[in-house]
Amino acid sequence: MNSALQHFLDKNGGIFTSQEAVKAGFQRSTLKYLVDQNELDQPMRGLYSDPNQLEDPFVLWQKKYKQGVFGGETGLYLYQLTTNTPFNYHMYFKQGFHFNRINNEVIPHYVKADKFEKNIEVVKTPSLNNVRCYSVERCLVDFWSENPSSEIAYETLQGYYQTKFDPYLLSQQLSSAKSRGVQSLKTALEALQTQW
């Protein structure tokens, strides 16, 4: 691999898109050649990575869908509030965003434009890379809005209550959420508070 491409890989944290490479002056044919020679990995269409680096699926999906933000159950995993390793990645997008093609690994959720940018944080993946994710409170409320009776929902609430509990931030999220699961979350939270 030539030094210019190695520098480009290093500059981009070991992963880049084909668009970024072309914009930086690299030919697509060069990328294909390097993949064929096992000097570059192509973990998914349009993405290239360093073959000597362990691939982080969270970083791959964040790079693939730059407009997306992790949240819900996936966010709760990133905040270490569930031991349930995700097989699918819940990503949130501004309404109007459309995937080029359907894939089974990313579960898209669509958010109104005025609420999309709120509560975004940078969190560490299990491989210690940075990705964008909604706040723990927003992840908790979003997850409970969809899965109010699951065992994982109670596990995440207990973990949140024991380690990250912030009544003000949680009440802000609860007041802005509108779903049947929110009442279940409030009831479960009250039950937890009486136990402690």
UniProtKB/TrEMBL annotation:
What is the protein named? Type IV toxin-antitoxin system AbiEi family antitoxin domain-containing protein
* Origin: domain of life: Bacteria
What is the scientific name of the source organism?
Ligilactobacillus ubinensis
- Organism lineage string: Bacteria, Bacillati, Bacillota, Bacilli, Lactobacillales
Q: Which residues form the AbiEi antitoxin N-terminal domain?
A: 5-48
- Read off the InterPro entries from this record: AbiEi_N (IPR025159)
